Amino acid sequence: MANINQVWLEGNLTASAVLSRWGDGTPYARFTIANNEYFKTSEGKYDSIPSYIDCIVKGAYAESMSKYLLKGRRLSVTGRLKQNRWQDEQGNKRSAIVIKVSEISLAPTGNGSGHPAEQEAPMEEAPADVGSDMFDGNEEIPF
Asked: For the chain, how big is the Rg over CA atoms in Å?
């Protein structure tokens, strides 16, 4: 039986993406998406609880998309979940789950949802080598 690891998430960026490079020169961008769970309270009022989900995208796709990933921007991402495990300085076992992003869809800006202060720049085509095989599973996410 195959293991399925596919996630699709929609929300708003909590901060602009940070573009960096790994030791081998491969570019990557990190960002966090806020996603709200809406519910009705016992008093009949509506409320929400936000979840903050860390994401990472790598390669030429990270370079071309990072300039559009601005604080407050509404977007959706598709990718895989990755659990990173490490020991902190006190010897405690720690872990974090991130989305290794393979696709980003930007919501319209201006009068619609998205970052209201920015004008939409023309979209660039993703490089031909970008796809679901972006991550071969051998890289460590540096956070």
From this structure: 17
Q: Which residues pair with 20 in a beta bridge?
A: 28
| 24: exposed, middle or buried (Cβ count in 10 Å: 0-12, 13-18, 19+) | exposed
Q: Any residues with CB less than 8 A from the CB of 89 and at least 6 apart, and which?
A: none
Q: Quick: pLDDT tens for 8-44.
A: 999 999 999 999 999 999 999 999 999 999 999 999 9
User: pTM for this one?
Assistant: 0.71
At residue 65, φ and ψ (nearest 5 deg) are: -90, -25
How many other C-beta atoms can be found within 10 angstroms of the C-beta atom of residue 92?
8
The tokens for 73 are 């921007």
- In the chain, where the domains are located: 7-106
CB 103 within 8 A of CB 61: no
Pick the CATH number of 7-106 from 2.40.50.140, 3.40.50.2000, 1.20.120.450, 3.30.470.20: 2.40.50.140
- Cα–Cα distance measured from residue 35 to residue 96, given in angstroms and rounded to the nearest whole number: 17
List Cβ neighbours of 67 (8 Å cut-off, separation of 6 or more): 121
